[in-house]
């Protein structure tokens, strides 16, 4: 095996990325306070060709050096929108026909291993504050919640890690369904 050089990775230019077909998935950050977590979600959104990232409440917005440190320019390629209140974002997404899902531990959450997104639908995946998680009033507006199975003594993951896991699984499942329909 040989590690590939950056020139061998066939990366899209920012202009090419702009016109690339995106997955109908929007990452919604509900009062995420760490700028590094925000940047990490942007980078993940770019890697998986998500439609957008919605930044809500106290979540910082680009341009910002601390976001850029982890986003590495993805904050310039991924579409984003700011909402003063996450509830406004959820209502807009619902009006646009998105399935609203929070990544949160609730009494009726669906384990990520049982998640079965439908290829013809759009998904808004909400990730919450590092301490308090997704607000209950936001959960109340969700179609359902997804929980990442965990097996150790800690029953929480960093928000950017959770986003990476859930977003990858969603894009992977949607891509498989699209391929199976061909």
UniProtKB/TrEMBL annotation:
Keywords: Methyltransferase, Transferase. GO terms for molecular function: RNA binding; RNA methyltransferase activity. It comes from the Bacteria. One of its GO terms (cellular component) is cytosol. One of its GO terms (biological process) is RNA processing. CDD domains: SpoU-like. Gene3D superfamilies: 3.40.1280.10. Signal peptide: none annotated. InterPro entries: Alpha/beta_knot_MTases, rRNA_MeTrfase_TrmH, SpoU_MeTrfase, tRNA_m1G_MTases_N. Residues 25-168 form the tRNA/rRNA methyltransferase SpoU type domain. It holds the Pfam family SpoU_methylase. This is RNA methyltransferase. The lineage of its organism: Bacteria, Pseudomonadati, Bacteroidota, Bacteroidia, Marinilabiliales.
């Amino acid at each position: 095996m040989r590690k590939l050089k950056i020139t061998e990775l066939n990366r899209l230019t920012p202009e090419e990325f702009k016109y690339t077909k995106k997955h109908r998935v929007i990452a919604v950050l509900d009062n995420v306070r760490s700028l590094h977590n925000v940047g990490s979600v942007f980078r993940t959104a770019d890697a998986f060709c998500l439609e957008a990232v919605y930044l809500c409440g106290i979540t910082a917005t680009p341009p910002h050096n601390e976001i850029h440190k982890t986003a590495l320019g993805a904050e310039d390629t991924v579409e984003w929108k700011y909402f003063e209140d996450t509830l406004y974002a959820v209502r807009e997404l619902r009006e646009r026909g998105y399935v609203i899902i929070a990544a949160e531990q609730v009494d009726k959450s669906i384990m990520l291993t049982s998640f079965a997104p439908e290829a013809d639908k759009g998904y808004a995946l909400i990730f919450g504050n590092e301490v308090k998680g997704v607000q209950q009033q936001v959960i109340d507006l969700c179609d359902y919640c997804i929980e990442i199975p965990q097996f150790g003594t800690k029953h929480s993951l960093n928000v950017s890690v959770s986003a990476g896991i859930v977003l990858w699984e969603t894009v992977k499942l949607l891509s498989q369904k699209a391929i199976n329909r061909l």
